[in-house]
Amino acid sequence: MTKPLFLVLLSGLFACNQPKRDAGNPALLLKNVTLIDGSGGAPILNTNLLIRGDTIAAIGDKMDADGAAVLDLSGKTIMPALISAHTHIGTLKDTANKGENYTRENILRQLKKYADYGVTNIQVMGTDRPMLFHTGLRDSSQNGLLPGARLHSAGYGFGVPNGAPPLAMAMDSVFRPASAQQVAAEMDSLAELKPSLVKIWVDDFNRKFPKMDTAIYQAIIKEAHKHHLRVAAHLYYLSDARSLVRAGVDVIAHSIRDSVIDDALIKEMRAKEVAYIPTLSLDEYAYIYARRPEWINDAFFKASLEPGVYEKITSPQYQENLKNAPDYERNVHAFETALKNVEKLYAAGILIAMGTDSGATPVRAQGFSEHLELELMVQAGLKPIAAITAATRNAASVLEIDGAFGTLATGKSADFMILNANPADDIKNTRKIFAVYKAGKLVSNGPLNK
Questions:
Q1: ∠ CA(366), CA(367), CA(370), 5° rounding?
Q2: Which of 214, 271, 318, 449 has the fewest CB atoms within 10 Å distance of its CB?
């Protein structure tokens, strides 16, 4: 579809007004901004940010900015670029997930989409395929040699023979040990890829599949820890969460959705420093299209969709099928329970990190889901600054990249969004993207201004 002329003109406006940075002194001074630094503190009003090369050189009023190009950003807010600690990439194309879609071109296209939405680091949770590693694409992306978000990979996760994760969702590279004795050799193979962590699926998908045997996931956790690898678990039930935390799991990668979490488990999670990735948007997507959410015709949402998905989710038949599905009430309850658990865990001091499961199915839109997740965390009871911290500093901590990313501080990578309004006032203001910077370079003016 051809863009209106005013959008074409607008897309070039910011880039054209960028001050020229001298190759010998590649410094840029962003003046008079409201700064949310990702640390959890209140916004800093009317301050300055100095970038030299790919790094934040200084923040504040007093600094040596000699020779720097200057950009006055009065009225705008800067915050760290988003980090999504649970995504999937490459197999999604149009209205389906297929192994044949997993190409360099498709991966780079989707990494660019994430960056357009202000997401400059993503973690792919166990559904990658050999091409990513054999071609060096993962390493090139992490090292900033490719456009788009940097890709951090859990490699090939561990599932169940003839069970979860469903083979029909292009999950044929997943390890599926039939016994605990198989695990050590498979973990040795995975460790050679240097994954960001290890993903396991411990769920029956509403009794559709056999669940992973306790002895097998205990062996996976034990062998992963031998390799100094952390383990993240896909789960649903409170009973599984208890067993997994007892076994030493490091990250709960989805919300507990059948029951409200108990204080004893929270105490154990806190003692063992287990992180929690709620993926609230996943649970809302499971039923929300039946209700035609208020954002369904929002251009910011529609720009994130693969071709054909909007037509699918807005068709009366699709919406009616969702509404009449046997799992409809269960899915609504799961979402409401997930909200309660996020609020309770946050209040208890558990590390909450933003992740969405975007890209796992066509209706979980890459890029938009990350902004929706922020809104849903606020709906769960977090303040906007706390939600932003979950999506920046905390997610960087889960990815173990917080030395360079997640907060805006001297010496860290200049990865940030410039927004037209302050999200501390209204979390939906993260969608008002004026510019996205990655490693000190302007990479996007947002998904609507290409």
A1: 105
A2: 271
pTM given for the model:
0.94
Domain that holds residue 307: 82-399
Model confidence pLDDT, tens digit, residues 260-318: 999 999 999 999 999 999 999 999 999 999 988 999 999 999 999 999 999 999 999 99
Residue 336 lies in a domain: yes
294 belongs to a structural domain: yes
The 10s digit of each residue's pLDDT in 328-360 is 999 999 999 999 999 999 999 999 999 999 999
Same structural domain for residues 89 and 198? yes
Question: Do residue 162 and residue 201 come from a single domain?
Answer: yes
Lateral strand order in the sheet of 275-276: 198-201, 231-234, 251-252, 275-276
**How many residues would you count in the chain?**
450
Same domain, 303 and 205: yes
How far is Cα 183 from Cα 213, in angstroms, rounded to an integer?
12
Question: Count of domains in the chain?
Answer: 2
In angstroms, the CA 32 to CA 49 distance is: 9
Residues ≥6 apart with Cβ < 8 Å to 429: 77, 419, 420, 421, 422, 423
Identify whether 450 is part of a domain: no
